[in-house]
Amino acid sequence: MANDDLRDPMQIGDYNKNIQIGNNNTIGITDVELAEQLGVGKVAVRNFLRLLDQQNVSIEEWDHTLRKLAERHKELERRAALLESDDPEVTSLQSQARQAIADIRYEIAEDFLEKAVKLDNAAAEKIKAIFLKRKRSAAENKALKAESLHTRFAFAEAIKAYEQAVILAQEGEDEEKITLYKNMLGCVHLDKGEYQKAVSYFEQALASDLKTYGEDHPSVARDRNNLGSVWCSLGEYRKAASYFEQALASNLKIYGEDHPSVAIDRNNLGLAWDSLGEYRKAVSYHEQALASDLKNYGEDHPSVARDLNNLGSAWYSLGEYRKAISYYEQALASDLKTYGEDHPSVTRDRNNLGLTWNSLGKR
Questions:
Q1: How many CB atoms lie within 10 A of CB 20?
Q2: Which of 135, 144, 263, 354 is deepest in the core (most CB within 10 A)?
Q3: pLDDT, tens digit, 9 for 90 and up, residues 309-341
Q4: Residue 26, strand partner residues
Q5: Burial, 234: exposed, middle or buried (Cβ in 10 Å; 0-12, 13-18, 19+)?
Q6: At what angle do helices 195-213 and 218-233 cross, to 10 degrees?
Q7: Residue 80 CB: number of other CB atoms within 10 A?
Q8: φ, ψ at 21 (rounded to 5°)
Q9: Vertex 150, ends 148 and 156: CA angle to 5°?
């Protein structure tokens, strides 16, 4: 004889009556109310109850077990919803995972989700790599434009282009290029005569490179050399000498004695000490720079001519005018071979010679 008060728990959800839990046990709550309490759909509630009945969960454990099922169910649904990809394989795995979740086959759902996430992450990483590559390429193009503008003394335009290059490099997560472009911004501001702005950019570059590379790295030495140059321009020669000395110590460790970077550092130190009235020190550094550059380049090279000119200036400061003339004449001969008559370096050499002969009374 049929009994309308008894119903198969497998059919819960078809009626809005008090929920029955196997063996005629009932609780005073409907499936709709329970679904609202648990935050899941009625279909999920029906499947939960089917599972609990199959597992012969006692009435005492029923509420705790049901809520654990609901929490796991919602977490898996949330994870499935997070998957976003145009990859058909990911979409298929997502669909299979959702079906498994609905069927309370959580281990199978977990497996589908793990596979989908791996594919989804791979797709996301590929998209990100393309994005970063484009940003880095755009940054390099801006930097090339900025460099061209700088060489044409279009300082305002060069600064704007380098600033855009920095932003693009940041978006491209290219820390090395961010630092490089900030360094170049410092160089443009230095050439423009905006020394405090130059100091700011060079200090940012130095802090970044120290963090990335540590003390003894060419980029760190370059940053310190640039800071020395701007402090020279500000008349802070002792500060400048300190940065040049740090750059020299670093480059000596990296390259050894006879390297162009070491010669540049010594040349800069010579200029700083000359400005401080330490002319003998200046001569010593310029002589070391000259010896190194002669080994690397031979007689007729702009770096050698520069060293000869700087030595002439140091001897001039010491009142050794004939020695100064000897070095200026060698610098002039070298620059004439390199550039010909009409070049600023040749003009500089002749001007220095004229001033020195004048100091000897040879007008």
A1: 20
A2: 263
A3: 999 999 999 999 999 999 999 999 999 999 999
A4: 20
A5: middle
A6: 160
A7: 20
A8: -120, 90
A9: 120
How big is the chain, counted in residues?
363
Instruction: Enter the tokens of residue 80.
Output: 């499935």
**What type of residue is 22?**
G
At which residue do the structure tokens 């977490």 appear?
A: 75
Tokens of 346: 């040749």
252-298 confidence digits (pLDDT tens)? 999 999 899 999 999 999 999 999 999 999 999 999 999 999 999 99
- 3-class SS of residue 13: coil
- Whether the Cβ atoms of residue 210 and residue 249 lie closer than 8 Å to each other: no
**Euclidean distance between CA atoms 272 and 291, whole angstroms:** 19
Where do we find the tokens 């709550």?
29
Torsion of CA 173, 175, 181, 183, to 10 degrees: 160
What pairs with residue 20 in β-bridges? Answer: 26
Output the DSSP codes for 188-236: HHHHHT-HHHHHHHHHHHHHHHHHHH-SS-HHHHHHHHHHHHHHHHTT-
Angle 240-245-249 from CA coordinates, rounded to 5°: 155
Axis-axis angle for helices 260-275, 302-317 (nearest 10): 20
107 contacts: CB under 8 Å, gap ≥ 6: none
Query: Tokens at residue 338, please?
Result: 């390199």
Question: Tokens at residue 236, please?
Answer: 């802070």
- pTM for the model stands at 0.65
Which residues have C-beta within 8 Å of that of residue 269, sequence separation ≥ 6?
A: 241, 244, 245, 248, 281, 285
Backbone angles phi, psi at 58, to 5 degrees: -70, 160
